[in-house]
Amino acid sequence: MYSFKKNFAKGIIRSNPIFILMLGLCPTLAVSTSLDNAVGMTGAFLFVLLASNIIISSIRNYIPDRVRIPVFIVIIATLVTVVDLMLQGFVPALSKSLGIYVPLIVVNCIILGRAEAFASKNGVSDSIADALGIGVGFGLAIFLISLIRQLFGTGALDLFGHHLFTIPGLGENPVTIFMLPMGAFFVIGVLLALFRWVGVTECE
After folding, report:
1. 175 dihedral zone (left: phi>0; alpha: psi -120 to 50; beta)
2. Per-residue buried b or exposed e for 116-138, using 16+ beta carbons within 10 Å of the residue's own CB
3. Mean local confidence (pLDDT), 69-85
4. How many CB atoms neighbour CB 144 within 10 A?
5. CA quadruple 108, 112, 118, 124: dihedral positive or negative?
6. Which residues contact 86 (CB under 8 A, 6 or more apart)?
7. Vertex 95 angle, CA 91 and 100, to 5°
8. Which residues pair with 157 in a beta bridge?
9. Rounded CA gap, 17 and 197, in Å?
10. How far is Cα of residue 154 from the mean position of the Cα atoms in its chain?
């Protein structure tokens, strides 16, 4: 139980894939324009990471070392196809908004990296904890970035068609640069600096 909690907790802060490991920045910067996108990408990412970690950990002793990377990619690609088809079938608007970045989960360095560095070397229980921790850490990161960009970039907060509130003043005159690529880089740069300032560093 201690091992499970430890592996789960380190993925959220000490080994946060965005703010500490600085992996998977491309989809994070591209889709973090709204909370809808953040929730959708987190769900897709977490499903693929969790399922791939479980499968790879379960069969790790039967995978020949020389073909392990191709096997990992085939497993991840299959799971991504399932997620992509489900999004297209059940939430087509969200699927269209996320665009190419859902299929690109296949080559996401976070998922492939966890498969190679952790799931292929540890048991199922620890691999589940690692996937959940990294997945939650990724979700919190992209949610925070999306929250800041949407608030300042539109002056309002909406979630799946429900208007939550509008910031007085900003609603009429939003800082639209936050919705542009430059705004994404600015937000993540400030957050990265904040993490360094409070002394959060990568876990051993």
Report:
1. beta
2. eebbbebeeebbbbbbbbbbbbb
3. 95
4. 17
5. positive
6. none
7. 165
8. 165
9. 18
10. 23
Instruction: Please name the amino acid found at residue 13.
Output: I
Output the six-digit token pair for 106: 């296949």
pLDDT at 96 over 60: yes
The burial class, CB within 10 Å (0-12 / 13-18 / 19+), for 4 is middle
Task: Please check whether residue 81 is in contact with residue 105, taking contact to mean a CB–CB distance below 8 angstroms.
Answer: no
Ramachandran sector of residue 154 (left: φ over 0; alpha: ψ -120 to 50; beta: rest): alpha
Give me Rg for the CA atoms of the chain: 18
Q: Could you report the per-residue pLDDT of 123-181, keeping only the tens digit for each? A: 999 999 999 999 999 999 999 999 999 998 888 888 877 777 777 777 678 888 899 88
User: Helices (DSSP H) in 155-180: which residue ranges?
Assistant: none
Token pair in block for residue 110: 């976070």
Query: Residue 73: is it exposed, middle or buried by C-beta count within 10 angstroms (0-12/13-18/19+)?
Result: middle
Q: What is the DSSP letter of 63?
A: S
Output the CA–CA distances (angstroms, integers) from residue 101 to 108, 186, 201, in the order listed: 9, 21, 28
Residue bearing tokens 């965005």: 18
CB hemisphere CA count around 52 (13 angstroms): 35
Q: Domain coordinates of the chain in residue numbers?
A: 2-197
